[in-house]
Write a structure and sequence with these properties.
Layout lengths: L1 H7 L3 H22 L11 H24 L9 H18 L14 H5 L15 H25 L4 H19 L12 E2 L3 E2 L2 E2 L3 H26 L2 H11 L1 H6 L4 H27 L1 E2 L6 H14 L5 H20 L4 H15 L3 H15 L3 H4 L17
Antiparallel strand pairs: 1-4, 2-3
Length: 389
């Protein structure tokens, strides 16, 4: 029943996006693992890892678009949920190192041995099991978002005030995780991962599998977001975005709708962070930086707020541009990013997807040449009027 509902919410545009995404999920690992390295069609492993990172960013952008594009909640702190999911996965990966660490301790990670910790903190218990870590990846960001949203939305904090509070939240976590006594590696964070589910994280097959998993996560979360936004719940969310006071006057408990979509969005961001960590090989407090959350908002704005597909496209395109700029012109990237955001705000408020949609509508509404052409041989000539008697 749930599956049929998900597919009933799809239209032609969403179907094309899903088809392209599935093709990429299948093609990238095949070009990496099956095509010989001597072939010009071979895709190197570093490119697979890079595209896998883009997929995790696309999932993060999708989570931001769900709350900003459809509910009007401009979050400048979604990087906090992304980082918390990453830390949960990083803790699992650290527990898998065992005696292969620098100090060879079977229980304590290297940074704890270095800091003279005598025993494993209680909040690290259970992270030696993947299923427990997978639950924490969603539960920790979800609980934090629920508690934060419960107080913020019940207090009717909206607009720029809510945005500032979300930014303060991620900055507070940044300062907390920098401390060595927190038990999360301090400034260095968690790194030197060896394997995941028994597979070497550096192996080509593992990298391809992580990319495919990231792509499937984007696909599944896209379907979930699509189901939410196309349902009656989604109509209420849009009403909250466009006229919150009027929606509340009609009898809807606006704070409940906001809290639900906010918590779901945070859990999606946590999944994105969990998939990000094994592919980049490190998680540190820098992921909590408020600038990261602001950059995510730019991805959504560039792609098209309130479109879902646009969020994915914007995240991939902007990060591809970032990869090129930081390699070719590293000093100019921040200027280019700021200029891009200003240009989109002023000239492309609907983003890439919105502009493409407007062009298609204009093309369909323009009469064809054959319709307007009445000079051909098939045209019916209007007879001259008879002279009056």
């Amino acid at each position: 029943m749930m599956t049929s509902f998900l597919f009933r919410t799809l239209d032609a545009k969403a179907g094309v996006f899903i088809a392209i995404l599935l093709a990429v999920i299948v093609a990238v690992p095949c070009f990496n693992l099956l095509v010989p390295e001597t072939s010009s069609f071979h895709l190197p492993t570093y490119a697979v890892t890079l595209m896998g990172k883009y997929m995790t960013y696309a999932l993060l952008a999708l989570s931001v678009d769900l709350v900003w594009g459809f509910c009007g909640i401009l979050s400048l702190g979604h990087g906090a949920f992304f980082a918390l999911g990453g830390y949960a996965m990083g803790m699992y990966l650290m527990r898998q190192i065992g005696t292969r660490g620098v100090y060879g301790d079977p229980i304590l990670p290297d940074f704890m041995v270095f800091l003279n910790w005598k025993e494993l903190p209680w909040y690290w218990y259970g992270f030696d099991m993947f299923w427990f870590a997978a639950i924490m990846v969603m539960l920790v960001p979800g609980v934090l978002a629920f508690v934060f949203g419960w107080f913020a939305f019940r207090s009717r904090v909206t607009g720029v005030y809510l945005s500032i509070i979300t930014q303060a939240l991620t900055y507070a976590l940044l300062l907390a995780f920098f401390r060595n006594d927190m038990g999360f590696g301090g400034n260095n964070g968690l790194t030197d991962f060896k394997d995941i589910l028994g597979f070497d994280v550096q192996a080509d097959t593992t990298r391809a599998g992580l990319f495919a998993t990231s792509g499937l996560a984007v696909l599944i979360c896209f379907l979930i977001c699509r189901a939410i936004t196309k349902s009656k719940l989604g109509k209420v969310l849009v009403a909250v975005r466009d006229a919150e006071s009027r929606t509340r006057f009609l009898g809807y408990r606006v704070e409940h709708y906001k809290l639900f979509v906010w918590t779901i969005s945070a859990m999606m961001a946590g999944i994105a962070g969990a998939l990000y960590v094994p592919q980049v090989g490190i998680i540190n407090p820098g992921e909590f930086a408020p600038a990261n959350s602001i950059e995510t908002v730019i991805w959504v704005a560039v792609g098209g707020r309130g479109t879902l597909v646009g969020a994915v496209i914007g995240a991939i395109l902007v990060n591809f541009a970032k990869t090129w700029f930081t390699a070719a012109l590293p000093d100019l990237w921040l200027f280019a990013l700021g200029g891009l955001f200003v240009a989109v705000t002023l000239f492309l408020p609907k983003g890439i997807i919105g502009i493409a949609g407007d062009l298609m509508k204009k093309r369909k509404s323009t009469p064809s040449k054959e319709t307007n052409d009445t000079s051909g041989p098939s045209a019916t000539k209007t007879p001259d009027p008879e002279p009056a008697e």
